[in-house]
Structure formats: C-alpha cells, structure tokens
C-alpha cells in the first residue's frame, strides 16, 4: 500500500496534521492526484540535498518532470466537468512551480516536498507502531532508497555472526573429541600391556574393566564423530546459503546499481543531470560485501584446517569445502576488479598537447587495507581494436598502446575522512596519437579511443594478488579546434545510444527520432539552461530529415549520415554542425534571453513571415539563421505609412558570435528604433531592457586622454533613423523603393547592418567624428 493511501487512513487528528502540511507552496491536490508518480521518485527526492548548490541542476530536472506530470494530469481531466476545479488547481500549481521555482529556486521546492513527505511518513509510522503492526518496516521501504539492499546486508551480517558462533562450537567439539580420542588411546595401550602380562586373577579383572571402558569410549567416540560430521555439514550448508545470497546481492549491486551509475555518468557527458554522490552509497555497500565475504572466506578456511587436523570422510565422500572456498574467492575477486572505477572521466574530446585530468577510485580499497601498500596506477591510450582484444583476452600485450601520454603514473592515496582510496591525475597530456587506416568516408573525428587505467596490488598479507584495469568512456582525439563539432557528434551519439555490454565501441547506424530528440534536448538544456519545446524539436526533425512538411516524426529513423555526414539541402554544412553552432552562440552570448523566452530561435523563414504578417508594425522576433552557422537574424514587420497598404516582413543579415562580442544582442535591439514589440506584442524595453548596457559604462572619454568610441547598429536607408542625418552616412541602397526589399522577393536577401561609432560628448562635433569613421 502506498504511503499516501496509508496517510488517508490515519485518525482524524493526525489526518488534519497531514492536511496542514500542504498549502500554496505544495498544494494537497498535487500530492493526491500525483501520489504514484511522487512516490516512484522517492529515491530522487532523497538523493538531492536542498542545501547543496551543486545539486541545483539535478533538482531543476526533477522539478521540470513534476511540472510536466501535473500538466499532463490536468489535460487528462479536460473533458470531465466534475473535475473542472481540480484541473484549475493543477494548472495553477504547474504555473506557480514554473514561475517561482523552476529556474530560480528548484532546490527550494525539493526541500518543501521532502519536508512534507518526511512529516507524512513520520505520522504514518508513529500511528502504525502504536497499533503494533509490522508495517512500519514497509513504510521505510517506501522512503529509503534501496532499503532491500540494506536489509539483505543486515541478514548476511547476522548469518556471518551465526556461522562464527557455530564454528567456535565446532572447534570446542573437535577439542573434546581429541581429548576423548586420547583417553581411548591410553586405554588401548593399557589393555595391550595387561594382555602381555601373566594371566592372574587381578589381571583378568583389570582386562575386563579396560575392555568395558574401551567399548564405552568407542561408543562415545562414534557419537562424537557423528556429531562432528553433522556440525561440519550443517556449517558447510549454511556457508553455501550465505554464498548464494552474497552472489545474488553482489550481482544486484555491481550489475545494476554500479552499472546504472556508470550509465548515468556517461549520459552526464551529454549534459544529463547526475548525482555523483551516489557512488559513496555504492561504496558503503561494496565495503559491507567485502567484509562479509572476507569473514566467510576466513571461516571456510578454518573449517578446512580443522578438517585436516581430524580427517573424517563425509557421507558419499564429497567434500564441499574446496568448492565453497573457490566460490567465495571468486566472489571476492569479482568484487575487487569490478570496483576499480573511473570516478572522474577524462575529457571525451581530447586535444593533443593539452592538459587534462582524471580520477580513479577503488571502492573496497580501504576495507581490504590495500592502502597499507599503496598501489600505482598507470594510464595509456588504446584504440577501439585494442579495447576489443583486451575484453576478449582480459590482458594487453606489453607495451601495446596507440599514443604517448605524459605524467601517466600515480600512486593511490587513502583519505581518512572520506574513507576513499583514489588517485587524481591532474597534469596528463596526450603528446602523440597513432591512428588506424581510414576507410570510405571515415574521418579522424569518427575514430574512438579509450584511456586504459591499470594497477596491481595484494590483499591478506600477499595471499591474493589482483591485477585490475578499467576503460574510460570513448575518447575522440583532435589536433585543431575546427575538428571539435564533428568530434562532439561522435561522442554525443556514442553516449546516448551505446548499449550495455556492447563490443567496444559499436553504436547503431540508425536511431528512432524520439531518442535523437531527447539527446538534443538534454545537450541544449545543459549548455544553455533551458531545454527544447515540442515545436523546437519538430522544427529540428524537419531540418534533420530534410522534410519540414512531415507532421509526425515519431516512427522515423535518423541515420548517422543524416545526423552529421550529409550536408543540408543547398548548404555546405551538416545538421549537427548547424545545431552545434546554434548551441554555442546561445551558450556564449544569448543564454539569459533564451532562458526567459525572448528568443524564439527554432523557426523557419516562411513560418516567421506567417507569424508576423498580421502583427502591427515594428513587431519582431529572433530566429536562428538557416544559412549562417551560429547566426541569429531579426525578422520584423514594417508598414510604410506613406504608402497605402505597404506592409512587409524583413530579415536583418544574421549576427554571429563575432558581432555579439562587439555589441550584445540587447543593445543591438535598442539601437534599432523600428523594432518596437517582441512577438506577439511585448514592448521591447520590457523584454530586453534589463539586458541593456548601462549608460554609465558607455562614457566616451577615458583616463588616458583618448576618446573612446562606441558602436551603434544602424540600418542604412531607413528614413527617420537618427544616423541618416549624419554627413557621409550612406544613403538608401534600394533606389526608389522607399525601403529595403521584402524578403519574399528573394529568399536569400537580407537587410545588412552597419555598426558605426557615435559620440555624445558636447566637446566634439559628432558629425565630423563620425565622418572619420565612415
């Protein structure tokens, strides 16, 4: 039964307390109608620390999902008149969460939700404990993440304590058997001596007494042997049961929890929120496993030692102990080799002769006292083919590598506070790379490498020696910055679509569009702070498939070639190059305006015209250029009041990062007097005023006596623009048309802009100064 269902069964007073913890900040309607989804995400609520700013992005992702779920739930009630008020409350909650928390304070909302759930949980637990039911543990199972793992570890610890007690009892029984066996041996020796003596009456009586004692002793010894066999078999059976449970739990932790963490780490390479602290929890579980395995292995070895001292053949002649020892040692080996992991991955796009870092950690190093003789770790770079051979043979040929890395060795260190055994490589540098021969259309940016981390150490005083290694995520090596976009295409495709257990580093050639859309959304949100809408993704699908007329791309497959190999129609760049450039210019220059929704961005030329044609004069929107990589163009509606019904939509020549480095977008918009309303009808000062460069930062004079010019964006030939009154300013370039041509006359035409210096200082003749700059 869910926590919310149990909360509704509380006594009236407690139920009122539950109702009292919900309010405007977290409406009870949201808790009620989304109870299942909220409790399914219980692990995520618990993993986020509201006081840790580094968890902000993780919290924002979760809050965004919550808002989407609320909106979906409200939409599902659209045709149900009885739930009209509920739908209104849900819509209000979604709006409130979006405006108050999503971008400004997601951790605040997570803190509120956690507090509500914890209070609710405590009330339910107290009530169920008073009733004497055994359900409070079930309640914990809802709240605590992976509580079944903790419970299984407690069971295994208890079983280990029990077998330790049984082993001590076996030792005592074996010592008792040894003493009794020694007594029987003395009786036999005495009896043999009497029998060799003269057959007197006294000797005959002595012999009879010794025979009776011998028979009794042998009966007792037989019982002891039987008891020892039963104890040994029972202990072996219990150890077998413990090993079976250890094996299942270890598979759960290593093959699910740790593999999921590694997958999340890989997706983080594409920008997906990631909670690295989950690794600390996994380490605690692995350390507990290591301790239990080591104790049980020691117990089994003790059983073998006792069996050697008193060799009693078991029924059927089958000795379980060697098999148990082999199994438990294999478990330990698997645990050690699987927990040698890369905590911080090296950069996946790696430039030669550039410093980079990485961190490797052994999760069970502290528990097994590996730190007593700190092991060295060596790093090398290997090719895809070499990685394949390594996985097949579990070892590398000595000296085999595909490049030269400087500062590639380090010694693991143990941190007493965090209990972590790790090594951080802070100054590695790839000096040389050996590339494979290319086939067909392959380029160096398609080639994947991996960093191989290797080490060797012993545990148990040198009893067991482990050779461990682990591979980094795929790495693409570049030598020049212009190779970066394609390299990131290779890495992004691999991160998003790599399948678990694959042959390195195979990826599908074609992927369903919804998966591509999710990857693009994740990357764009990580880079810019706000993700892509359904309309944005539909626009991108039309561009990627070279067919914007298609209405539903859900079942369509996009190939790797379409993604980043084949140029877009009538362009000399690919879909990925266009998207990457848009993402880059938004991250570097337009992040704030994108996040507050001032930039529409993903809209085509014709769609922009359709949107603006019925707007009032001066209405404009911002869109990403189709023809210029990383270009942003301003489309606006202009109505010439001097001519009847002369209305048209115009496009400014695209601005790029180079232009924005000279004059920010907001100041460009402020410069152009013809731009009045951000589509649909927001006054431009309201939308962009907060981003204008303050006047105090535009002083024309400097402390060194020089005049400091400032640039102003100007569209030549537009009557009424103050710049047109200056001497030497170019006159209209459009002849007698009275304004720039409509973009509809030629899709490739854009209105060009001049950026001119202006001076407002009364000490200078502005016209003359401007003429010098013209």
From TrEMBL:
The cross-references to SUPFAM superfamilies, in alphabetical order and at most eight, read: p53-like transcription factors, SH2 domain, STAT, Transcription factor STAT-4 N-domain
Q: Which GO terms describe its molecular function?
A: DNA binding; DNA-binding transcription factor activity
Chief subcellular location equals cytoplasm
Pinpoint the SH2 domain residues. Answer: 594-695
Any single Gene Ontology cellular-component annotation: nucleus
Recite the UniProt keywords alphabetically.
Activator, Coiled coil, Cytoplasm, DNA-binding, Nucleus, Phosphoprotein, SH2 domain, Transcription, Transcription regulation
InterPro entries reported in the protein's UniProt record: p53-like_TF_DNA-bd_sf, SH2, SH2_dom_sf, STAT, STAT5_CC, STAT5a/5b_DBD, STAT_linker, STAT_N_sf
Q: Give me the ranges of the annotated region Disordered.
A: 729-762
Cite the record's Polar residues compositional bias ranges.
742-758
Subcellular localization(s) per the UniProt record:
Cytoplasm; Nucleus
The UniProt entry, under Pfam families, shows:
SH2, STAT_alpha, STAT_bind, STAT_int, STAT_linker
The residue stretches assigned to a coiled coil in this entry are 146-173
Q: Mind telling me which PROSITE patterns this protein's record contains?
A: SH2 (PS50001)
Q: Name one GO biological process term.
A: regulation of transcription by RNA polymerase II
Regarding protein family, the annotation reads: Belongs to the transcription factor STAT family.
Its name, as the record gives it, is Signal transducer and activator of transcription
Q: Which organism is it from?
A: Penaeus chinensis
